[in-house]
Design a protein that fits this description.
The structure is a single chain. By secondary structure, the protein is mainly β. The chain has a five-stranded antiparallel beta sheet with strand order 1-2-9-4-7, with no helix packed on it. A four-stranded antiparallel beta sheet has the order 3-8-5-6, with no helix packed on it. The protein has a single domain, classed as Jelly Rolls.
């Protein structure tokens, strides 16, 4: 699994790329101290989190999801033959 941090892209918010290799079944998007968005570049998954109240959110190429501060999201990857590539931008809250 590859992770990377891009420098500041047009804003002061960092952006991460998350590349899940083929055959990955589950991945947890870790909670951060600030709101974030995820953009799916390739692959498919179903997302679960406590704020979805038991429902699942389907993610595929072009999907964009918002994640509240301090919330994690569990991904059940459906594209196990090709993996998944996502970009995550977030704004860390100052404490």
């Amino acid at each position: 699994m590859a992770h990377g941090v891009y420098g500041k892209i047009a804003t002061k918010s960092p952006a991460l790329y998350v590349q899940l290799p083929a055959e990955t079944e589950q991945y947890t998007v870790a909670a951060v101290n600030g709101a974030s968005i995820i953009i799916v570049y390739s692959g498919r998954a179903k997302a679960d989190s406590c704020s979805l109240n038991g429902e699942t959110l389907k993610m595929k190429r072009g999907s964009v999801i918002f994640i509240s501060a301090n919330e994690s999201v569990q991904l059940n990857v459906e594209s196990r033959d090709s993996g998944m590539l996502m970009f995550r931008a977030y704004c860390a809250l100052e404490t």
